[in-house]
Design brief:
single chain; mainly alpha; Tetracycline Repressor, domain 2; 9 helices
Length: 190
């Protein structure tokens, strides 16, 4: 990704967070990025395309950070903690800091649904590949790495909804971690 796109996407992330999706304009994004509006339009045809690119850019940065931290870890619990920290907890904090939280969530869900589905699929594949190494002998277990990966990703992402505060979210993720570790342990004992 070129420097201009990074500049635009960083600025757009700030603007969407500040104003929400419906109130954000291409002019707001261009101004925050320090670019002419036409320069922004040369890169992205509309704010919907910018929003989808912001989500993709953020997810790719998170995936890269998770991969880098996972390299030094062998314990599954530690790897789950890293994902929870850089994924759901980080995203929860980012959304909670937005003064236009409801509009931000509604805008993302209505405009970028397909992008969210594609990103979820990529995360599930990443988790499945990682979980494979912890499911030692599957000949005695019917636990499938991809199904477990989908469970971990979807449950961790959904845990942030209706969490009254960060502590509740952290507790939910702790229970998820214990559940996954227990499932892996029992699958490897069978």
């Amino acid at each position: 990704m070129n420097d201009r796109k990074v500049q635009i996407l960083d600025a757009a992330g700030i603007v969407f967070s500040r104003y929400g999706v419906s109130k954000t304009t291409m002019n707001d994004i261009a101004k925050t990025a320090g670019l002419a509006r036409q320069t922004l339009y040369n890169e992205y045809p509309n704010k919907e395309a910018v929003l989808r690119a912001v989500l993709r850019y953020g997810a790719e940065k998170t995936m890269t950070a998770v991969d880098a931290r996972w390299l030094d870890l062998s314990d599954l619990g530690d790897k789950l903690d890293v994902f929870f920290e850089l994924g759901p907890l980080h995203w929860y904090d980012a959304v909670q800091s937005s003064p236009e939280i409801a509009d931000l969530i509604d805008g993302i869900n209505s405009i970028a649904q397909q992008e969210l589905i594609e990103l979820a699929s990529e995360w599930v594949q990443k988790f499945a590949a990682m979980l494979d190494q912890y499911l030692a002998d599957r000949s005695f277990s019917n636990l499938d790495a991809k199904e477990l990966a989908d469970f971990v990703y979807s449950t961790s992402m959904n845990a942030k909804y209706n969490a009254k505060d960060r502590t509740v979210l952290e507790d939910r993720l702790k229970v998820l971690k214990m559940t996954v570790l227990s499932l892996i342990s029992s699958a490897n004992i069978s």
